[in-house]
Amino acid sequence: MKTIAVYCGSKKGNHPAYAAMAKQVGEAFVQRNLKLVYGGGDVGLMGIVAHTALTGGAHVTGVITEFLKAIEGHYELSESIVVETMHERKTIMAERSDGFLILPGGYGTMDEFMEIITWRQLGLHDKPIGILNTNDYYTHLFMQLDKMVEDGFLSEQNRKLVFQADDVVELLDLMQGVEVL
Ligand code: AMP
């Protein structure tokens, strides 16, 4: 069974489309028999994805730091891994997963996306990375990535490393079309 890490907001956003999307993502894990690895919190979009996946019977692993656990850790996951540092957390999440799904979020989500795509660009892994563009949330990010290509800071080839779609079914189909997933 394959495992996908979800990187997403610790907030729910202020449009109902985001919470609805997070629920669809959790359901997709159940329907596709995928294991979920995520940041281990019971907050925001990440809480909705984890709760929905767990309720549907999916295996959910949370990787959380000691200090975050004390604030908002999810207490009834299939598996909980408590680490010391944020770097350790990102390393374990990456090692445990066969692909990475990025949903709307803030700085934390951007950090996770940028690190995992940078590692991919450097050839440190060959796992698919997909961005879910719910409610046009990442349209401006895609424009920025295109600007990086246009102005010579990013190659066309590396720009294409990012799968993108408005819908989770379409995005997972794209990602699962890749051999490693
Ligand atoms: P953001 O996209 O800025 O909301 O950040 C998502 C990231 O928030 C996660 O990956 C964590 O690093 C961090 N985070 C914030 N609060 C929590 C929490 N209660 N539980 C787990 N992770 C959290």
What does this structure look like?
The chain has eight helices and seven strands; from the N terminus they run βαβαβαβαβαβααβα. The protein has 181 residues and is of the alpha/beta class. The protein has one domain (3-176): 3-Layer(aba) Sandwich (Rossmann fold), CATH 3.40.50.450. Strands 4-3-2-1-5-6-7 form a seven-stranded parallel β-sheet, sandwiched between helices. α1 packs parallel to α2. The chain is globular, with a radius of gyration of 15 Å. It binds adenosine monophosphate (AMP). Adenosine monophosphate binds at residues 9-11, 39-41, 43, 64, 68, 71-72, 105-109, 112.
CATH topology: Rossmann fold
Beta fraction: 15-25%
Range of helix content: 40-55%
Number of folding domains? 1
Mean pLDDT: 95
Separation of the first and last Cα atoms: 10 Å
Derived structural class = alpha/beta
- Shape label: globular
- Give the number of DSSP strands: 7
The CATH architecture can be given as 3-Layer(aba) Sandwich
Supply the key terms.
single chain, 181 residues, Rossmann fold, 8 helices, 7 strands, 18% strand, globular
Summarize the SSE layout with pairings:
Elements: E1 3-7, H1 16-31, E2 35-38, H2 44-55, E3 60-65, H3 66-72, E4 79-83, H4 86-96, E5 99-102, H5 107-121, E6 129-132, H6 139-150, H7 156-159, E7 162-165, H8 168-176
Parallel strand pairs: 1-2, 1-5, 2-3, 3-4, 5-6, 6-7
The protein binds adenosine monophosphate.
Adenosine monophosphate is lined by residues 9-11, 39-41, 43, 64, 68, 71-72, 105-109, 112.
